[in-house]
Specification:
The complex is a heterodimer of chains A (387) and B (235). Helices cover 34% and strands 28% of the residues of chain A. Chain A is α/β, with parallel strands linked by helices and 387 residues long. Chain A has a 15-stranded mixed β-sheet that branches. The two termini of chain A are 30 Å apart. Chain B has 235 residues and is an alpha/beta fold. Helices cover 34% and strands 26% of the residues of chain B. A 10-stranded mixed β-sheet of chain B has the order 6-5-4-7-8-3-9-10-11-12, with helices on both faces. Classes of the chains: A alpha/beta (387), B alpha/beta (235). The interface between A and B is medium-sized, with 23 and 27 residues.
Chain lengths: 387, 235
């Protein structure tokens, strides 16, 4: 397997990219996605693999400088097994043969020679200029087994100006083993970048989409807002505290010594390579005017219910109705499984109105494993959500 | 909705300026005042920001031109597609970003997004801030050069994305195209992406412009000169 250099993505791909695969990183214009290809390149080089990099849009010096700055770590070609074909080579080819004509044969010859001379294992190609020069068929054949060693892995970055129809056409003809599209969206957050695993030939998994940040030269998948809501005393603050590594709760102690959340709970965790932020709402109805503010831009919601308290179910039903209107993934966690008098899952579903497509977990918010199970399910649903 | 003043009295007095989201094609022959006119249109007024994609001049030269036009350089950003080919190690700053050459549409798109982000998060102008949401003028100088490096179909798709983004952020886009260097098909395709066209012609060393696409503004030719960033109409 070849690592993508992004461990969260390797997990989703069942360990990385199988050797000999053909991969497309498709970039929507303006989306900061160049680090996807660069992360994979660094990973391959650092594992000692011999790489050929085809950069018809720029020069060797400018490329090495730019990727060094993007990654925060300089890339000196003498330190690694790397061969490069750049814009100067493209100009030489154009001068020799004129545009079109036999330029593709000249490219083929150069790629083949570099692959043989350097025993190349992984080829990284920036496609859009090649596409411009030769069209789709000829362009793809330049970066295929026709020119590259049969066992080599080919990774292509392309500025996709044609949108989803272009990607669908590639998926239909099975031109790639992995198509990963990097895009931006304005919903449910005001603006965010995300990647979608459109297709893999080696894994039957469904299409997945994950928001990401660029942090210190790395791609970090992230979920900026998961909200935990539920009736009073259902265990939301405990759930947030046990789910997260850092956080705080704005609580008030009543006359009888009981503690209740009066503003919100907040926590952060880095988990399975994801940066996740959790917000907990107050449960008392008098704080309901705050709910839309806290729920706004949430990418998923946990509804926490005290599974031993029948009196809370009406309130839980009301909150469930509110969150279903948001059209984001929801998971229900029935808390206090360790106490007597548990309400059955069937009754919970019936009384609150929970559909079959929404998972219900019986948990104890005191147990970190239970809390993580709920989060894992919600994160899985969020990554399968189509933006 | 925000209105972008043009500095052209004939337009500003009639319309109050261009609506946010306007994309304007500046169609002009070589050796005309088109570039100066573009700087006048792009110059940020107080509270505004400007971004110039330069395929013909280095960032330092672009800033000099803006200074001549009377702009505050703290509110001007440049995406420079010239300097990096001779100085590969040049690094980006908040207001100066570099791509190797005009073929690199991926890089141009990303640098544009970065600048918009820094404008929105308030880190663009050394702690000074303008209006919010920020009015942003964006100029491509020039579409003609981009067309020499990339195919018309590709550039059309790219400009389609850029003009749409300008609309989304309620900016004002200005795109310079040489009217003599391209065929009718090219001109008409690029015009399709625009809201307004300003055409410039030169007769006996005098420059004229006319405006097409604004209701209430006639498309007559107007003789003009430009001095210190001001458009002066000849009576």
């Amino acid at each position: 397997m070849i690592s993508t250099g992004m461990y969260g993505i390797d997990d989703m791909l069942a360990g990385g990219i199988p050797e000999g695969s053909r991969v497309l990183y498709s970039l929507e214009p303006g989306v900061d996605g160049q680090l996807f290809m660069i992360s994979t390149l660094y990973e391959a080089l650092e594992k000692g693999r011999s790489c050929l990099v085809i950069i018809p849009h720029t020069t060797v010096d400018a490329f090495l400088h730019d990727v060094g700055e993007l990654r925060g770590k300089s890339l000196k070609n003498q330190d690694y097994r790397i061969a490069i074909l750049d814009s100067v080579d493209r100009e030489r080819i154009q001068r020799r043969v004129g545009k079109g004509g036999t330029a593709d044969q000249e490219w083929q010859a150069r790629i083949k020679k570099l692959c043989i001379d350097n025993k190349v294992e992984v080829i990284f190609g920036y496609f859009d200029i090649i596409y411009d020069d030769f069209g789709l068929e000829k362009g793809l054949s330049l970066l295929s087994r026709a020119c590259c060693p049969p066992e080599s892995t080919i990774i292509i970055e392309h500025l996709n100006l044609e949108g989803d129809t272009f990607l669908e056409s590639l998926a239909v003809r099975k031109a790639f083993d992995l198509v990963l599209a990097i895009k931006s969206s304005f919903r449910p957050l005001p603006h965010f970048n995300y990647f979608t695993i459109v297709y893999t030939s080696w894994s039957p998994q469904l299409r997945r989409s994950v928001p990401f940040l660029v942090k210190n030269g790395h791609i970090v998948p992230y979920i900026p807002k998961i909200v935990v809501t539920g009736p009073p005393e259902s265990g939301k603050s405990r759930f947030v505290a046990n789910a997260t590594e850092l956080g705080m709760s704005v609580d008030r102690t009543g006359v009888g010594g009981d503690v209740t959340t009066v503003a919100m709970d907040f926590g952060w965790l880095h988990w399975k390579d994801f940066d996740i932020t959790l917000y907990g709402t107050p449960g008392q109805p008098r704080f309901d005017p705050m709910l839309p503010v806290i729920l706004r831009n949430a990418m998923g919601v946990v509804l926490l219910v005290d599974a031993t308290n029948h009196e809370q179910l009406t309130r839980a039903r009301h909150l469930f109705k509110t969150i279903t209107k948001m059209h984001v993934p929801i998971v229900v966690a029935a808390n206090k499984k360790d106490l007597p008098g548990l309400i059955s899952e069937e009754e919970l579903r019936k009384t609150i109105g929970i559909g079959k497509n929404i998972p219900v977990f019986l948990i104890s918010a005191q147990l970190k494993e239970d809390v993580r199970d709920v989060l894992e399910s919600l994160v899985d649903s969020i990554t399968r959500f189509i933006y | 909705m925000y209105s972008y003043k043009t500095g052209i009295p004939q337009i500003d007095q009639t319309t109050g300026g261009f609506d946010a989201g306007t994309n304007l094609l500046l169609l002009a022959p070589s050796l005309s005042y088109a570039e100066q006119l573009a700087y006048t249109l792009t110059k940020p007024l107080p509270g505004e920001y400007a971004i110039m994609l330069s395929t013909n001049e280095r960032a330092s030269e672009v800033i000099d031109q803006f200074k001549i036009a009377g702009a505050d350089k703290k509110f001007v950003g440049v995406i420079d597609a010239i300097t990096k080919s001779s100085t590969p190690s040049v690094s980006d700053t908040e207001r100066f970003m570099f791509v190797t050459n005009p073929t690199d549409l991926t890089g141009i798109g990303i640098k544009f997004s970065h600048m918009i982000e820094t404008i929105f998060d308030g880190t663009f102008s050394e702690g000074e801030s303008g209006l919010f949401p920020p009015p942003i003028r964006f100029c491509v100088n020039s579409v003609s050069t981009l067309l020499m490096y990339r195919k018309l179909e590709v550039l059309y798709q790219f400009l389609h994305v850029m003009t749409a983004r300008l609309k989304k952020i309620e900016g004002f886009g200005i795109y310079i195209l040489n009217s003599e260097a391209f065929d009718e098909k090219t001109l008409s395709l690029i015009k399709q992406l625009m809201t307004i066209v300003i055409e410039v012609k030169v007769e006996r060393s005098d420059n004229y412009f006319r405006v097409m696409g604004i209701r209430g503004v006639n498309a007559d030719w107007h003789k003009f000169t430009i001095s210190k960033g001001q458009v002066i109409l000849a009576l």
